[in-house]
Amino acid sequence: MKPGAGEPIPPLPARRLVDRIAPTQEGILRSRPVHRAEIVAVLALATDLAIGQPMQFAFRSCALGLRLADRLGKSASERREIYYQALLRYIGCNADTHVLAALFGDEMAFRRDVARADFANDAEMLRAVARAILRSRPEASWLRSVGAVLGGMARAKSVSVPVLAGHCEVAERIATRLGLGAVVARNLGQLYERWDGRGLPKGLKGDAVSPAARIVTLAQDAIVLADAFGRDEARAVIAKRSGTAYDPQVAGAYLKAGLNLHEGLDRDFEADEIVALEPGASDPLSEPEVDEAFMVVADFADMRAPWLVGHSRAVAELAEAAGAALGLPSADLAALRRAGLAHDLGEVAVPVSVWAKPGPLSTQEANATRLHPYHSQRLLAAASSVTDISELVACHHERCDGSGYHRGVRIAALPVAGRILAAAEAYRTAIEPRPYRAARSPDAAAAALAAEARAGRLDADAVKAVLTAAGHRAVAKRSLALAGLTPRELETLRHLANGLTTKQVADRLGVALKTADNHIQSVYAKIGVRTRAGAVLFAIENGIGATK
């Protein structure tokens, strides 16, 4: 999305799709059953990238958590809870990422530091905050650095409760949308709770914290600590935190088992291996369930920052409409719609602080942004049932003359659906604001796409179909009759979705701060959420945002 210079990235080895401009009769979407655990595995890998952990972190902690479950004699239903808790524990942490980036710069590096710390220990958290502040201000004087660190610690405390509560609510909501049930959703809402009651946001204590949350918290910390300091040091830290951060029974089982629990975990797992570990049998998803799962993928990618709200859904809608105008068969349209929803999943591999940078990017930053289609492709390719969609996703920044990225391929290697996706993505991105530029008008975006087609960079037929489908109505309004919201409450929700603070909402509405807060609380009550992050996800789910 953000342009940058750099050499094309070598492609992943993968089966190529249709090479002709005419749609195929059989379509490009193969009739392969999609299982819920496959989509969860893709989301787990994406979450690893988003929180700054190595890919496979969730897979490895899932395997470790299940080994602990065996040691503790957990039932099949409890093992299922542990399985999904490990894979999706941090799924809500992509919300409010722009807040962390604004406070600490590279939010991924900050999250890596925090993952090693005991967040109830002020000294350990101060060190993590200090590293983040100093990293973001390398030229600052000693005195200014000290002031920045102290200020950063104060701000971190003030935002931690609402931000972490938002992470929990988003995780619960996503679990529900994926059909994982109320118990798994509840467990995911406890990702920051602790045995000693000093966790967030509810301060649950002891057995009030679900067994899955207790086991997975220790398992994931064990992986992080072992990677950072070695297994012996990890065991020492876990022993020290037993009875505070960790359930003593869980910590005791881990320590009693010795280093054997980690054997075989220091390797790359195939997603299929993790899917096979799912406790109990699972039926393939229905087509509507697959569509909803891809909606979750889209919303996960777009909730990182206010300027992304609704982008992936809008690209998918426009691409599908353009594909229908070109007469693509229904299977191709389904693949195109799902590729549009998932195309920017790989953006989570790049810190929000880079995407938010108002000025020119460094060469390193530019090359990182150009890799996001590669990451999108790689993440989706992990699920064998959607490899065709991963190939389409790889096309969304390619150009017919070979000047695109990440593979730099030419028109002969781009299927018609891939050309449509590239044109739809270019149009939608142009009419949406970004931190480094204002939005273009629909007419200006249409003119720019037409120029790209004349220059041979975008396919002319795809551009024509996209512009016809857009109808030059990039800001078409949705129905106001949503969850009983009044027009003023809908406007309030739109402002929340675009990252405005309560004070900024008040200023936009021309009302007092207390009145704005009353509007916000009324919105929360009507749409059934508790946090700002939950409201933002609701807005994304219902197509509400500045670009709608």
Can I get a quick summary?
This protein has helices at residues 36-50, 57-71, 76-88, 97-104, 107-116, 122-136, 142-177, 182-188, 211-229, 231-241, 248-257, 271-276, 287-302, 311-325, 330-342, 352-355, 363-370, 372-381, 387-393, 416-430, 442-454, 460-470, 487-497, 502-509, 513-527, 532-541. With 548 residues, it is mostly helical.
The largest pleated sheet is described as:
none
Query: Any idea of the CATH class of the largest domain?
Result: Mainly Alpha
- pLDDT below 50 for ≥5 consecutive residues: which ranges? 3-30, 473-480
Radius of gyration: 23 Å
Structural class: mainly alpha
- Number of separate helices: 26
Instruction: Describe the global form.
Output: globular
Q: Roughly how many Å apart are the termini?
A: 19 Å
Q: List how many beta strands DSSP finds.
A: 0
Overall mean pLDDT: 87
Q: Which band does the percent of strand residues land in?
A: under 5%
Secondary-structure element string: HHHHHHHHHHHHHHHHHHHHHHHHHH
Characterize the quaternary organization of these chains. single chain
What's the CATH superfamily of the largest domain, by name? Hypothetical protein af1432
Number of domains: 3
Q: What is the CATH architecture annotation of the largest domain?
A: Orthogonal Bundle
CATH fold type of the largest domain: Hypothetical protein af1432
Residue share in helix: 55-70%
